[in-house]
Amino acid sequence: MVAINWLADHDLPVKLAASLSAVWREKTIEMLKENPFRLLNFDVPFKLCCKIAKEFGFDSDHPKYQAALAVDLISQYCRATSSTLMPRLVFEKKCREMGVDFDVVLRHAMEQELIGYIRGEDGFQLEGEFLLEALTGQRLRDAILRPPGAGSSSAGWECSLTVEEVTERLREFEQTIRFSLTDEQRRAVSLASRMSVIALSGGAGTGKTTILQAILTVLERVSLGVDIFQIALSGRAAQRMVEATGRPASTIAKFCADMARKKQDQRSDHCIVVIDEASMVDLYSMHDLLRYLPSATRFIFVGDVDQLPPVGGGLLFHNIMKSAFPAVELTAVKRQGAESGIHQFATAVRHQHGGIALPDYLEGAEVDCAILRRVDPEEISELFYAHGGPKRCAVLTSMQAGKAGVGNLNTVMQRRLGYDRPVVRLTHEDGVYDYVNFNGSKFYLNDPILIMKNDYEIGVRNGDLGTIVEILDEPTEDGQLGWVEIDDRMINLNADLLDKMSLGYAMTIHKSQGSQWENVILVLTRRAIHMLDKTLLYTGATRAQKKLIVCSEGMGLIQHAVDRGSIALQRKTNLLQHLNTDF
What element of type H or E holds 448? Predict the structure, then answer.
């Protein structure tokens, strides 16, 4: 209690004070007096650390202050850029701007072993990120170098697997589908079935889903019942795997939680892991996953390097594709024909062509890809309903806030349906009131909704789309308020589900990754110019199957995004060096 009161007197939150006391117990104050910058490890802002340090006699010239400054500068850069290291030149420039001696700061940080120099990248990395990349690289190298049959008695099937057997099983699979695979697709399936680590990348419509079905079918027949786990980062991506393959799939978070509840002898000592939408998987999520996988694991990464990168740090899939690991880049588009305007536009964006042009949108015109040279929420709402509404059309935007952000677009499109519909209401001891969510939205009958958080007990995942199909006149005794339909399933609408919902008339492009709609309205605004790049534009455009309408002030914003390329490729990481060691 003494430590907690002392920490509270120094403006530290009670929750943090309790955490520190739980770690250091009666030595809490002693540990902080010895080095108050230990608080950085608990996400305490550097300025607050400095304030506490000054009370203990640590001025700006103290070696521990100088070392902590280096850690804070690297941490800030990595958070801002989603990098895992800070280039030397950027570090030096930041020190000059702050009026501190780069050499002195660096020396003290290196002496205390808080940061490390990365020779190949000529930059500096915190110990945590270095270890995560090193461990991830080591696990994947161990997997690709593992001899067939090693690591588990269940892996014996690998020793007798031949190209001929894979080819035969693949031929049997092709007899079950209504079209023939291309030679490129057959090669991808064959390699993925035989290699212990492989990455498969390809643009939208190149047949990744079909290839995944073929790989799973072949492996199920040749591996003699070995566990095959389908995994994705987001709940929506995992659900799409289920729909595409007819086999169970899980998010990384749920898979790790399920494995954590099992004893070691209850877990597989040999398995095959398929990670879909792998370009979205960040370094930290991958490391969490690896903790629960045996050494005799085979990895199949499926993704698209030209779609959106991870929200979290690192560039896992991109670095695997650049490494010496087996990789296949699919190029033949099957979803739309070569004459499709959507395909031509997406291809131009993907390959960063100059002078991209789109025909102006005209109602009734026989074009599948066009531009509307204005961004008017009311007009976007009209287009949305004219092209099928929630069941057949998606409105995708890059921003949450602003006139053309998710919040306002949802409000405008909900208003168009009217407010004379039944509304979700909650009871309280003071009476009955309309439910209002964290965005200030109410929910009415027939509103489309978007799930924002996973809840495996209820059976919903982050990214699920649904519709409120019934609202009860009054809540039942167990708190049921109505029904929501999600993927042809009826889900009990209650207070728990409400807290995980937002309106689903419009959504961010990030939320749309892994899904497709018949029609897509893609909204681009100058307010989002700082985040517009090739990957954002390409991901949004390739969600459309039949018609794409780009709402933008003009082609200039589109060309800006294309010319900018991929912002993600500017991230600085060191994983590639770890992946390529011993190759």
Answer: strand 448-451
Structure tokens that stand for 74 in this block = 């690297």
In a 3-state reduction of DSSP, which class is residue 499?
Answer: coil
3-state SS, residue 155: helix
244: its two tokens: 């595409």
Q: Strand pairing partners for 198?
A: 300
Average pLDDT of span 232-250: 87
Q: For residue 280, what are its two tokens?
A: 């979205």
DSSP 39-66: GGGGT--HHHHHHHHHHTT--TTSHHHH
Q: Give 124-161 pLDDT, tens digit per residue.
A: 999 999 999 999 999 999 999 999 999 999 999 999 99
The dihedral through the CA atoms of 314, 317, 323, 329 has a sign that is negative
Q: What are phi and psi of 496, to 5 degrees?
A: -60, -45
CA-nearest of 205, 255, 195 to 230 is 255
Q: H/E element holding 370?
A: strand 369-372
- Spatial separation of the C-alpha atoms in residues 32 and 39, rounded to whole Å: 8
pLDDT tens digits, 73-103: 999 999 999 999 999 999 999 999 999 999 9
CB atoms within 10 A of CB 93: 12
Of 400, 208, 437, nearest to 302 (Cα)?
Answer: 208
Q: pLDDT tens-digit profile of 412-461?
A: 999 998 999 999 888 876 777 888 888 888 999 999 999 888 787 777 87
Please name the residue that has the structure tokens 């020779």: 119
User: Which residues are within 8 A (CB) of 348 and not within 5 positions of it... i.e. 6 or more apart?
Assistant: 356, 562
Tokens of 532: 């517009």
Q: Which of 309, 301, 308 lies closest to 327, judged by CA?
A: 301
CA distance linking residue 445 with residue 439, whole number of Å: 18
Question: SS in 3 state form for 194-219?
Answer: HCCEEEEEECCCCCHHHHHHHHHHHH
Angstrom CA distances, 441 to 435, 438, 503, stand at 8, 7, 8
Sheet holding 227-232, edge to edge: 250-251, 227-232, 270-275, 296-303, 197-202, 327-330
Q: Which residues of 265-304 are buried (b: 16+ CB within 10 A; e: fewer)?
A: eeebbbbbbbbbbbbbbbbbbbbebbebbbebbbbbbbbb
Q: Can you say how many angstroms the Cα of residue 380 is from the centroid of all Cα atoms in its chain?
A: 27
Bridge partners (DSSP) listed for residue 427:
432
Three-state SS at 118: strand
What's CA 188's distance to the chain center, in Å? 24
* Environment class of 207 (CB within 10 Å of its CB; exposed 0-12, middle 13-18, buried 19+): buried
Q: Three-state SS for 526?
A: helix
Q: Note the Cα 338 to chain centre separation in Å.
A: 30
Cα–Cα distance for residue pair 282/162, rounded to 1 Å: 34
What CA–CA distance (Å, rounded) separates 288 from 278?
Answer: 15
Tally of CB atoms within 10 A around 382: 15
